[in-house]
């Protein structure tokens, strides 16, 4: 009777079970990490392969995001440059600009006089001797026209350009934003390609983790058979391998983040030097918090899925045999 009472007292209470469950998982997490540290060379090679695979789409993402940031600054340039006829004086050009400011599709008009255009041309350098030969200013008055947000699409710009050409003072008009729209379309294509590449390399990571876990299962086959003989559940057998796959994913994701961050640091100085040649400043941005979280979360998920597939295949084959 006393033995039964002592066994009953040793059984876990309902409120103790979450703590026991947490302790079991914590022990499994630390045990799997210890096994990986006991095999530094194969573990390091697997993590390096995963990290390099994940760093490629991450680097493409960083590149496209930096190019989008750079293109955002270019958005401030005029959408349409209207060149007036040479006989149009600055006073008449100001009247044209005032008339254009009343158009509902135009948000701003900037007047560049003939003298201002010539001064900017002189500032470029390299044409001093040619400019000295000029007897008069050959440059026309230019109106830099900025449409509002609702009329910034290529179709609206083309209609605006056609309407501007009908003005009696206009000579020709040039669309400055069309190339930017094309550039952004190219960036969208690159981003889609990087997502496709990320999916393919993610499948590769899945296969790498699955094959690594399969080899780990083969090395511990006798241990697994003994656990099955003593009545261990599939969840108990599967647990350490799942955590091993999660560790591979987490460490591979951290390696990818480290590689991309090092690449950004190495490229920052050449990019700054190139931007200074164009009298501009530009700082490369690396992976933000959301992108870092996505890489780490995705890599852990890939590790878990790969290990789950490998363990389940082994457990199913052992049941059939």
From TrEMBL:
One Pfam family in the UniProt entry: FtsX_ECD
Subcellular location: Cell inner membrane
Family (UniProt): Belongs to the ABC-4 integral membrane protein family. FtsX subfamily.
Domain called FtsX extracellular: residue spans: 79-161
Signal sequence residues: none
Topology term for the membrane: Multi-pass membrane protein
Listed PANTHER family: CELL DIVISION PROTEIN FTSX
Protein encoded by which gene: ftsX
Subunit: Forms a membrane-associated complex with FtsE.
Function: Part of the ABC transporter FtsEX involved in cellular division.
Record carries keyword Transport: no
The protein's name: Cell division protein FtsX
Parts of the chain that traverse the membrane: 43-63, 185-209, 246-267, 287-311
